[in-house]
What we know:
The complex is a heterotrimer of chains A (266), B (372) and C (314). With 266 residues, chain A is an all-alpha fold. Chain A has one domain: MetI-like fold (Orthogonal Bundle). Chain A is built from 13 helices and no strands. The mean pLDDT of chain A is 86. With 372 residues, chain B is of the alpha/beta class. Chain B folds into two domains: 2-154 and 278-337, Periplasmic binding protein-like II (D-Maltodextrin-Binding Protein, domain 2, 3-Layer(aba) Sandwich); 156-277 and 347-371, Periplasmic binding protein-like II (D-Maltodextrin-Binding Protein, domain 2). Chain B has 13 helices and ten strands. In chain B, strands 1, 2, 3, 4, 5, 6, 7, 8, 9 and 10 form a ten-stranded mixed β-sheet that branches. Chain B is globular and about 65 Å long. The two termini of chain C are 30 Å apart. By secondary structure, chain C is mainly α. A two-stranded antiparallel ribbon of chain C has the order 1-2. The model of chain C is unreliable at 306-314 (pLDDT under 50). Chain C has helices at residues 9-25, 34-60, 78-85, 87-120, 124-135, 142-153, 158-165, 177-201, 205-213, 218-229, 231-246, 250-255, 263-273, 277-302, 309-313, and strands at residues 64-65, 70-71. Classes of the chains: A mainly alpha (266), B alpha/beta (372), C mainly alpha (314).
Amino acid sequence: MTGSRSKSIVIWAFVVTALLMLSAPTIVVLGASFTAGNIITFPPEGLSLKWYGAIAQASDLRQAFFRSLIVATICTLISIPVGTLAGIALSKYRVRFARTIQIYLLLPFTIPLIGSGIGMMLVFGEMGALGKLWPVGIATCVINLPFMIWAVTASASNLSPDLELAAANCGAPPLQRFLYITLPAVLPGIITGSLLMFILALNEFLVSLLLVDARSVTLPVQIYNSIRSIITPDLAAISVVFIACAGVAIALLDRLVGLDIFLKSK
Amino acid sequence: MMPNEKILSAQIRRRTLLGSMAAVGASAGLSTLGVSKAFAQEPEKPSEIIVRAWGGSWVDSLKAGVSDSFTKMTGIAVRHDLTEDNEIQPKIWAAVAQKRTPPIHINWDTTTNATKSALRGVTEDLSDLPNLKNTTDLAKPVGLDGYPIVNTYGYVYVLAYRPSAFPNGAPKSWKDLLDPKLKGRIALYNDGIGFHFPAQVAGGGKLEDIPANMQPAWDFIAKIKEQQPLLGEDPDFTTWFQKGEIDAACTISTNAREARKNGIELAWVVPEEGAKFDTDGLWIPKGLPENELYWAKQYINHALTKEAQQVWLDGLGLPGVVPGLTPPADLVGDPSYPTTEEDFKHLIRISSKVQVENESQWFAKFKEIMQG
Amino acid sequence: MRHSRVAYPLTWRVMDVFERLAAAVWPSSFQRGLPYLMLLPAVVLVGLLVLGLIQIGDSSLRTLDTSTFMMSENYTLANYQRALSEKFFATVAGRSLMGAVIVTVITLIFAFPYAYLMVRTPSSALRKFLLVALFLPFFIGQVVRAYGWLIILGNQGMVNEALGLVGVPPMRLLYNYPAVLFGLVQYMLPFAVLMLAPALTAIPAELESAASSLGAGWVRTFRHIVLPLARPGLVGAGLVVVTLSLTDFAIPAILGGGSQDFIANAIYDQFFRTSDQGLGATLSLLLVAVGSILVGVVFMLFGAGTLAMGDERK
């Protein structure tokens, strides 16, 4: 980073505050999962793994976790082509009624989640699809789709029309231009967008609540529903395991495609 | 208070009457067996049935008292769906409206919510359950024909408090919540449920004016608002007591007892103005296949046996609907576990029908005061 | 993807086949329709919500009969009348709107330096750390997260204990309007950063060094170069944050102590507590209308951000 000392100080001040805001409750809860006591406290009362032992026994939690993984995978797989195409269309081409279309495509954010949930419960119910996992995957994709579209359009300033024209002049047909020029340009957006889609779907609860039943319940819904009186450290332990799994997934992704490249400024 | 007193005393009389009948030996397990034999052929057993329940100690008690013994008896597994009662309701209503199989077999529900479903016509009739004959009047839903739902126990919205915050002894009246010391230290349910009726008394009004004139209740609630109460749900109350955020709350005794069991310093009273008494029940949504409906009914029938009630309600610390149950040791003589006519005199019971017809207005009024 | 640029003729041949296929399916004379075709899947997916909205629109025109708990057969505007005339709904709507605007401003102020550092730092480890820190909070769930805040900011929490050491009496930091706004900022920060980051990667660092070598201080460079170039990202992030905070339900419920409801909480109450789907549907539709108008106003004031590109290029 170039620039003066005062610039670093100002930026770091904001970043450290933001980091504190983001992580403080998480660290407290995660730390509390190693408590030997019966309630979530920080610092934990003594160290033990007993709450991890407790959740290791719960097969229903494991099943719910795998269901959440399936839902998140469906959501991400759908959102990548759909969001990328829409994002490129909006940023690269001149579209009539572009603003109206954008307001329409922002409906998932302007409709309150409860309304979306109730609406989709009725729609999928009419189709007789409730109780399966794919409607939940589609629903989580729909309610978060603007993230994918906007992540792609936000990186579309990388798109250089000149480059494409040059390629066309050299005789590159449209599909090749799309694959070798347009797509790589918006790849940073696709990567951050799909990461976000995956993690949001993995943790989605309000809309899922209306779409799952006891046999297809996902992990966040299961956790929310199990809280009735005392909030016990096993919930913290579940979160730690959840984070660890997601961490492994992100690390793998990083190994495969190198997250770093896409986020670094050119 | 008159109409309620009548209901209650009638109920108590019947209670004592049935107590002696039960002693003759209509043992619960036996009667269930009798039922199954009565049908020449049992309908095909589903591999499992789904019962909606509240999480935590609520589902643990149901499992120990009813579900496990049902599985042992019939071989049918019981899966518990822990969706909140409020949140499962639109799911069931939509399923019935769209003629789909409902997501659960049995709903463990508040009588108020269950009454809404019954009025809407989405519940199966349960009048033919054999074990109903052994129950007290409490099992019968008030203001509905037959048994679209069966009440399974009663509970009280007590005034729970932290004894160390009341050095001069337990609070005696709901008005004690107006003590300036308690500013920002009290909690009520989000929608004020459980608090409207005692507030009517504390505000100088009469219970028979419900629902026509509830101004005294609103006046009292407006005074409570000045105390900046926290509003929440059961888990919030427990957390807030545990973390020292509040010193008093209007809550269901079961949650207070559960918190105390977990080492939180807590006691409770029924103040002089009285406390709301209500019931929870079980019901079956329409739209199940015949055989599953049959076994769902068997489950509810089993929940009405003395053995099942004893274990289930020991866990909840609540009085059941079959005579001759033994109260848990820690609740003998406790006002939240009413057994005698004298106990019931301090409790306020309003028919579910009046409640469901007016509840949305009461909630709206309460919200308007609290959100202002 | 990159290595295929130096690929074998075989892949070239495969590509040719695909090109011909694409040309057959979509001849170049259809070129003008291409962007619409690309938008189609997204429009269809969001159409699922529209189907739901139609159902909701239908219920919004029916009132609840509390003697049967059925919706009325005939249509009426009674719900709309109630929603627009009762003071309670106005209070809640005002609170949500003001909250959404405040939260958006604060979130952008914090998200910008965060995203900037994340894309500009030469250290790959720091970049990944900043990225992972964004995602962590999602995993502990709302209820447990609220509990975490209680441990930190509660009456007997860590912050009040620390204040007690310097003689400040415990004060209530949670369960009020500022607490809700704080919670929303924290919740929205990751979204804003992730919307901003791709836009910032597109701003060449050389541009900044050029400006500073010409004698511009970093504040001026920021104001005149980075911020204008980042406008698409800022508008996008702002829209996401403003719409999501306007319709949020969980944060006001858990950090508001029950007395700081937003519109979505009032909608929840109608759907789930009083079973009045008609009024709940009405409030939902009004909220969608307000949100969409807000989005339209942002487009008018700031342009459609990145998305205006197509327009500018003609």
